[in-house]
Amino acid sequence: MTVPEKKILLIVMDGVGDRACPELDGRTPLQAVDTPNMDWFVSNGNSGIMDVISPGVRPGSDTAHLSLLGYDAKAVYTGRGPFEAAGIGLIGKRGDVAFRCNFATVDGDLNTLDRRAGRIKAPDTTDLVKSLSGIVIKGVEVTVREGTEHRAALLLRGPGLDSRVTDADPHNNGKVLESRPLVPEAALTAEVVNEFVRMSYDKLKDHPVNKRRREAGLPEANILLPRGAGSFPNIDPFPEINRMSAACVAGVGMIKGICGVCGLDVIDLPPACTGGFGTDVVLKMQTALRTLKDHDFVLMNFKSPDVCGHDMASAKKMSAVRNMDAAMKYLRENMPRDLVVVLTADHSTASSTGDHTADPVPLTIYTDGMIMDDATEYSEYGCAKGRLGRIRGHDLLPICMDLANRAEKFGA
Amino acid sequence: MTVPEKKILLIVMDGVGDRACPELDGRTPLQAVDTPNMDWFVSNGNSGIMDVISPGVRPGSDTAHLSLLGYDAKAVYTGRGPFEAAGIGLIGKRGDVAFRCNFATVDGDLNTLDRRAGRIKAPDTTDLVKSLSGIVIKGVEVTVREGTEHRAALLLRGPGLDSRVTDADPHNNGKVLESRPLVPEAALTAEVVNEFVRMSYDKLKDHPVNKRRREAGLPEANILLPRGAGSFPNIDPFPEINRMSAACVAGVGMIKGICGVCGLDVIDLPPACTGGFGTDVVLKMQTALRTLKDHDFVLMNFKSPDVCGHDMASAKKMSAVRNMDAAMKYLRENMPRDLVVVLTADHSTASSTGDHTADPVPLTIYTDGMIMDDATEYSEYGCAKGRLGRIRGHDLLPICMDLANRAEKFGA
Fold it and tell me: What is the rounded CA–CA span in Å between residue B26 and residue B19?
């Protein structure tokens, strides 16, 4: 008898894990909110905690998602630039070097006045990017693509590139930095970056958009500051490795970029699903369930808890949790049979530190026919009482594949 | 906002883990003793169990401490000799080969009569060691340094040495063994060891100290028996790897040696802190807290529970536990804020077997702002009820670094 294969829905509640918050009487946002629908999955599934990379290692969202997709992040991660670029549709090939960029405001001496140019957004950025098209520096093709708000990506393509260069972005309101090669082979790349930064200033400083912003008293976006150089990695496609079709339902560019580079179909979301705090979470869940009709595996990402953690706003994070619980209610009531559902996070984002921490994330796996355990509450400690123990991020996918009756036998 | 970094106090209760003792109605010494102060850390921190090397691997104190310091013990451990030598101030360099030695009593046919020469100690050993100074064999410089009681260390320095040789020490009252090379490259080293053993007998057998001991009816210390050959390892310094200043507060030579080789400052202890059963544990804790004033990380080691385990003395081990609980009381009442405290062991030492076992050790981590868990009792099983699950020894330091807000992010 052939056992039917199940499909897999991996729900990543970005940064939902937290530490004890004094303002919540020592509870975490997950502990402080009543989440009957998440808890339903806990009560009917199996739970545990997970070190997404390994114990004590603070994951980035990029490395964490690679790990959740079953990759060895330490082996395949080449820096954030390529994923950021891919997330806004700038998917490069091996040998290309990509950077994240900010539109920023500088004075005539290239001192940074505002690293985000007043959080400038489209359509201003669309016009500005157009003026940077078709640039070639020392034989290297330069492509700029706008991202959300002040963000953009820069892709360099040509012979002799190497991503081991320092950032031009000073990361605070200091003087724009010269990119330096960290190894001799990266000298050309650093030269191209520095020339590009100067060129962006020349082309943007008197651009009509900036004249208009100057008159309106808004910070000008008169330079582009690259950072986070990375080579496009050579990643084996997820659908080939795992022999299943796969898609990603996410609003955030970088997550879409990672999934795109890994060969997942990146699903277009309705405008109401921004990836941020105001996302229509039920609509997003509907999109995920629809996507599962013609895909075996869907990764979906809710970004808002991470944003609240970075903002050190535990009360707002509680709202984000309440919101996601509404999405879980929809899932409970509308999910197909023969589905493996995973509720987890890519990392913890502590409201008390405003950044990612290495605290293990809560994990619940639900499907038909699981052995019951004692865990009943979706939270950092509630899940620790479950049957799964403490696992590592890159072991999650194999566990799900097995529960979905898709795992190969090792041996006979 | 920059989150303030915390300091770390890693308390190693050497060999405190145990197995069920029939004479304690199936309890362990930790379970049989009321430890309100250790338990306070459990109730207010997070607990779990730890395989210091990996499950089922019985750690030595040396490999265990390397693992607790975050090293991959399997990669850096080169034998106990170098650490033992370093512990008594004989810190070698790469290429040197070190051995542990015992002063022993042999008859004229080199049959061992007492492997510890009646636990001879200073000043007798001091005089004996002097007669072994300035030895050169086949171009190899030979240095002997006395340790505690009958123990000494032997350091060989010269070209062409290799530590892969067998022990001259028969490890029981048999004939002194010929050291044999385990690989052809170690032939010279084995020859030097054998020549040194013969030479030690020649120089010691009629030494005035031994004449006096013979007359007093005491076992003579008429030979030195090397064992545990090891090359001096090439270990990256702990303070550099972890970007924090670090010190060790321990009474036992080998622990001091390991910490010294790893680049920790080895703190001198008052004479009342011997490392053994009679140590003034509160004075030792005071020393540790004082050391934390100008160090970011302190490893402290309480040796007595291990000694009791080796002696198969569970009742005495209970006293050692009671004693250490008094030190924890002092810690509770006097510790600074912004400290991460770890209560754990380097291995279990079973009172029923008299040796180290691979049973996972209890682990509690305390700092401000931890998510509460249900564990309330510091013991082998009491800690297993906590939130940390089951971790490995070399993951402990990264976890502490993260809780101390000192971990680097992997990715973005």
Answer: 8
